[in-house]
Amino acid sequence: MEALAQQAARKQRQLQDASAKPLELDGRTRLTCDGVVSKEEIEELEQQVKTLQAQIASLQQKAGDQTSAKRTELQRNVFETGFIRQAVLQQQSSLVNVQSALSRLTVNVAVS
After folding, report:
1. How many CB atoms are closer than 10 A to CB 36?
2. 112 vs 103: CA distance, rounded Å
3. In angstroms, rounded to a whole number, what is the distance separating the alpha carbons of residues 10 and 111?
4. Cβ of 14: how many Cβ atoms within 10 Å?
């Protein structure tokens, strides 16, 4: 995603600096002999910048959606973990009660 942002920024700088030095795209010089970039070439570069910006926006949206889905999944896991923890604590409490009752019965049988 950063590579696309850098490429878009580079294209914008190329548009701004077009008269400063020859611009190379696809191995061809994109400047005319008098050092002026043609309107068609500027429009082509602007279209490329728009395309790259759209790709960046799409990737950012996709990353945001993935982050949101992951956050929802983690929250569900935390809820389920808490539910399981509570069930285990209740089972442990029941086990202690049963052990206590068995212990009392054993003591009562031994005394009788």
Report:
1. 12
2. 14
3. 93
4. 21
The residue to which tokens 């008098």 are assigned:
34
Query: How many domains does the chain contain in total?
Result: 1
Coil/strand/helix, residue 1:
coil
Q: 18: which DSSP letter?
A: T
Q: For residue 94, give the nearest of 105, 106, 86 by alpha carbon.
A: 86
* In a domain? residue 38: yes
What contacts 60, CB < 8 A, 6 or more positions away?
Answer: 1
At 27-83, the pLDDT tens digits run 554 554 455 678 888 899 999 999 999 999 999 999 999 999 999 999 999 999 999
Cβ–Cβ contacts within 10 Å for residue 83, how many?
A: 10
* Token representation of residue 20: 């400063």
Decide if 106 is inside a domain.
Answer: no
Query: Which residues constitute the domain of residue 36?
Result: 2-81
